[in-house]
Predict the structure of cysteine desulfurase.
Amino acid sequence: MMDCMVNTFGNPSSIHSFGRQARHIIDDARAFIAKSINASENEIIFTSGGTEADNTALFGVAMANKEKGNHIITTSIEHHAILHTCNQLEKEGFEITYLPVNEFGEINLDALKAAITESTILVSIMYGNNEVGTIQPIKEIGELLSDSPIIFHSDAVQAYGTQLIDVKDLHLDLMSVSAHKIKGPKGIGFLYAKNGIKFVPRQYGGEQERKRRAGTENVAGIAGFKEAVRLAHDGLQGKIEKYEQFKHRMASIFEQEKIQFEINGEGAKSSLPHVLNISFSGTNVESMLVNLDLAGIAASSGSACTAGSIEPSHVLVAMFGNESSRTTNSIRFSFGFENTLDEIEKAALSITKIVKKITER
């Protein structure tokens, strides 16, 4: 990225040599990223991140297909980039069905089938949940919708880089990804849009991204994104096993220290390896987060995008109900590929001290 910012300042839309140099960086990254999900180069649209990709997918498809129908199906545990977009679409006359989930955070395929109507134009279901890690049956959903005109979108921001994703095998039409979830730069992401899927652009101006997303491309960000994709997919299986080891070790230390805890989402058929959401009985989120921060442990009570909010996690409310204590005493931990087992053990021991201090008051 530094080399790009220092030595490649040309506008990639310009035809002079400096512009062509920048364009080559974008084209190279687009091809590399497309290959990582078994897509074609022209099916990758660079965006400013997952939120823009989600908004482009939902608003774009809704507006392009409103003559065919006005019904959209999603879930009650989506990221707010999806839920708030759906809220706005409701104000604009679209009908939204929010599928419930069980106590593991999983949707029911029969409930999805029952929700489909003649006016359904789009189904948007996240790949893996950002708060509890539950993975939805994306392939089964894709197969269910593959013979229908309904467009299938998945927010894969939390899953990309920790899962092997083949958009053709999953029958996905649209998929959102953000670079910073795989240690890439913030402010860059992409929307995979299958060839032939029509949507109305959300930005107007130049003819960048094949007239689908106007605005001069973030060349340095795209260069960094490519490198992050390379690093994330290099030895991916080993990273998955490492994250699972972290999960099990942290939980085993909690058990050894005899603190009261429950893993939210435990029991799901499949879950992301790097996300661990734990309910600590007898504690509260605010006190836990303050103490964790003082101990040098970076954690959250839900999505980082709602940090500072004292509202209970909508994901945990959907899983356990408003009255459950888990909505006010759960903490989300997540791991990266530079974390070490020693760090996890030290963090787990610090967490046990904090929990004991709070619960013994």
